[in-house]
Design goal:
- It is a single chain.
- The chain has helices at about 15-25, 45-50, 70-80, 90-115, 120-140, 155-160, 165-175, 175-180, 180-190, 195-200, 205-215, and strands at about 5-10, 35, 60, 65-70.
- By secondary structure, it is α+β, with helices and mostly antiparallel strands.
- The protein has a 4-stranded mixed sheet with strand order 2-1-3-4, with helices on one face.
- α4 (about 90-115) runs antiparallel to α5 (about 120-140), α4 crosses α7 (about 165-175) and α7 crosses α11.
- The mean pLDDT is about 95.
């Protein structure tokens, strides 16, 4: 694509789904701007127009053409800016990567949300379920540095933004991820050494305070 491409991310600072898009753009060295949405005070007309079905961030505006859904956006970025491919070259490995992306999308955020949006026994069960999800991911990671092997890639970009919320899950759930999934803990530290990840991910303490504020808004505390 030409250097004159206009690339804008409709964004929300705490969203792990928005962070995926920004990390992918950073990895590809694509110049872009972020437009922060006020998801609680009123969504912008641009967001409602760009994603009329779900009305959610992220949305990638590429030369004013909207692309929605974070995993789809990351795949789009990989195709449009093909240097340094994020997906494996082997068809089987690409299929495996997409399987784990689907698993992450169906399990990680929702089980985490069940921790911070509950109390009592329900939270205990949610914490146990979340740890089980991490154990499955740890099995997929194995002894590799990254999910795709030696190189930081598609599954890592999809998964790592969720880690900014893990402190909140740990504090509310009363557990330590490192105690249950040390390989995932080491993978998080490895990913955070990358400039693209460190630049994009929000401070976990800030996310934790955001979660506490949201719990109060919902009458959970």
């Amino acid at each position: 694509m030409s250097k004159g491409d206009k690339v804008v991310v409709l964004d929300f600072w705490a969203s792990p789904f928005c962070a995926r898009v920004k990390i992918a753009l950073e990895e590809k060295r694509v110049n872009h701007a972020s437009s922060e949405e006020d998801l609680f005070g009123g969504k912008s007309e641009l967001l409602l127009k760009s994603n009329p079905i779900h009305q959610k961030v992220p949305v990638l505006l590429h030369n004013d053409k909207p692309i929605a859904e974070s995993a789809i956006i990351v795949s789009y970025i990989d195709e449009v800016w093909p240097s340094k491919s994020l997906l494996p070259t082997c068809a089987y490995d690409r299929a495996q990567a997409r399987f784990w992306v689907d698993y992450i999308d169906k399990k990680v955020f929702d089980t985490g949300r069940s921790i911070w949006s509950s109390n009592g026994e329900e939270r205990v069960v949610a914490s146990r379920d979340f740890i089980e999800v991490l154990k499955h991911l740890e099995e997929a990671l194995g002894e590799k540095d990254y999910f795709g092997g030696d190189a930081f890639g598609y599954v890592d970009i999809i998964a790592i933004p969720h880690s900014a919320w893990f402190l909140a899950y740990e504090k509310l759930g009363g557990f330590k991820i490192e105690d249950h999934s040390p390989k995932i803990s080491a993978w998080i530290k490895r990913c955070l050494q990358r400039e693209s990840v460190a630049k994009v991910l929000p401070d976990p303490e800030k996310v934790y305070q955001f979660v506490l504020h949201f719990r109060k808004m919902e009458g959970l505390d």
